[in-house]
Amino acid sequence: MDKIKARFTEIFPELVEFRRDLHMYPELSHTEVHTPEKVANFLTHLGIEVRTGVGGRGVVGTLKGGQPGKTVALRADFDALPIQDEKDVPYRSKVPGVMHACGHDVHTATLLGIAKVLSERKEDIRGTIIFIHQFAEEVIPGGAKAMIEDGCLDGVDAIFGAHVSSFDKLGFIGVKSGDSMANGDTFEINITGSGGHAATPHVTVDPLLVGSQIMMNLQSIVSRNVDPIDSAVVSVTSFNGGDGFNVIPDQATLKGTVRTFKDSIQDMVEEKIENIAKLTAEAAGATADVNYVRGYPALINDEKETNRMEKVAKQLYGEDRVRTIRAQMGMEDFAYYLKEVPGSFVWVGARLDDDNKVFPHHHPMFDVDEEVMKVVGPLLISATFDYLNE
Fold first, then answer.
1. Model confidence, pTM
2. Spatial CA neighbour of 71 closest among 344, 376, 341
3. What stretch of H or E contains 337?
4. CATH code that applies to domain 183-296
5. How far, in Å, CA of 121 to CA of 213, rounded?
6. Residue 28 gets which letter from DSSP?
7. CA angle (306 as vertex; 232, 133 as ends), nearest 5
8. How far is Cα 378 from Cα 365, in angstroms, rounded to an integer?
9. Distances (CA, A) of 3 to 227, 233, 278
10. What pLDDT score does 2 carry?
11. What are phi and psi of 21, to 5 degrees?
12. What is the mean pLDDT of the chain?
């Protein structure tokens, strides 16, 4: 692995250049055109077999080793977010209102670096390695599901992936077997009342008042229906209705998200939202229509493959840089891959040295330390070799 680490250091400037190009020219989910072209061209120049348009806009590279064996897939995502980049850096986004605010540009550049290093060691590989470059991770239903349906996991025995973290210290690796990230659902509640003049509320059915009551009643779902040992989140994130100071509107809309781990809790929450919305509205003489959309499933890491990731991480970087992390309520469509084949998804710290420049994911000032690519690359290669040579 020392040679692989050294090689990553050698090609690091090339990876930084690629990452910054993606950062300057980001593309939103389901609109990715130039990004998959750049990825495909990079892989093609390495002599790797490339398939484009996978599931829509995905790119899949296949590297067959010099010896027969199993097949391992590695995945990176490449879509950006509808956020204005406010950083003062040379590689600031040149696309108004669009930026890489979650590290997908780093993920993509790192996986291309892995492909470059492994293509140079093709004869040493016992088996086949699949490079999955995924589109549209940031929006439900996500690109993973479509790419799987289009065969990106055909013949794959295991899969590994990593996500950078802007808050965790550079090079620290977080592992978690079992439940790791939550189901991510969305809901929209459309309330219809009877509008009128704000000075005569007694002759109206105020959908804003009904919406407020529904929003408050939804808070009882978790506090009074979910075992405290389990986890669930019901958050109303949008409440819209009316635009005049003296007009009670006819309609109002609530939107929000639900996060759970257990299918039984997910079912219960969906049913409760439906009942609470409709019965609360009915009691006030209004109506409520609920649109509940199930998003990404819970991300459940395979125990054996997570233990493998933990083992190779400690071998590469020492025990003091590897830790078991708690499950989190964020969602990630890598979960779809793990429903099909065993694997593990880990988090790697990429915090900047300057605390004044440290911001959360999906923030206009988001950025990470590009040195993290030197950590993730050897980590995923080591896990791949450990699996194929087992």
1. 0.93
2. 341
3. helix 334-340
4. 3.30.70.360
5. 63
6. B
7. 85
8. 28
9. 50, 46, 63
10. 87
11. -65, -45
12. 97
Residue 385 CB: number of other CB atoms within 10 A?
Answer: 21
At 278-335, the pLDDT tens digits run 999 999 999 999 999 999 999 999 999 999 999 999 999 999 999 999 999 999 999 9
Two tokens, residue 28: 């939103």
Phi, psi for residue 195 in degrees, rounded to 5: -80, 180
User: In the CATH hierarchy, which fold is given to the domain comprising 2-180+298-388?
Assistant: Aminopeptidase (3.40.630)
Smallest Cα–Cα separation from 145: which of 301, 345, 334, 330? Answer: 334
pLDDT in tens, 236-270: 999 999 999 999 999 999 999 999 999 999 999 99
Q: Where are the domains of the chain?
A: 2-180+298-388, 183-296
Give the torsion sign (CA, 323, 324, 325, 331).
Answer: positive
Instruction: Tabulate helix, strand, coil % of the chain (nearest 5).
Output: 40, 30, 35
Give percent of the chain above pLDDT 70.
100
Active site residues: 79, 137
pLDDT at 1: 79
2-180+298-388 and 183-296 agree in CATH topology: no
The predicted-structure confidence for 108-117, as pLDDT tens digits, reads as follows 999 999 999 9
Task: State the sign of the Cα–Cα–Cα–Cα dihedral 129, 332, 148, 306.
Answer: positive
Residue closest to 330 by CA, chosen among 137, 105, 151, 194: 137
Alpha carbon distance 170, 321 (integer Å): 9
In the three-class reduction of DSSP (H, G, I as helix; E, B as strand; rest coil), residue 287 is classed as strand
Query: DSSP letters of 54-88?
Result: ETTTEEEEEEE-SEEEEEEEEEEE--BBS------
- DSSP 3-state of 45: helix
* Tokens at 211, concatenated: 């919406």
Q: Which residues of 245-279 are buried (b: 16+ CB within 10 A; e: fewer)?
A: eeebbbbbebbbbbbbbbeebbebbbebbbebbbe
**Measured at the alpha carbon of residue 185, what is the angle toward residues 182 and 191, in degrees to the nearest 5?**
150
- Which amino acid, 250? D
The DSSP 8-state label assigned to residue 298 in this structure reads: P
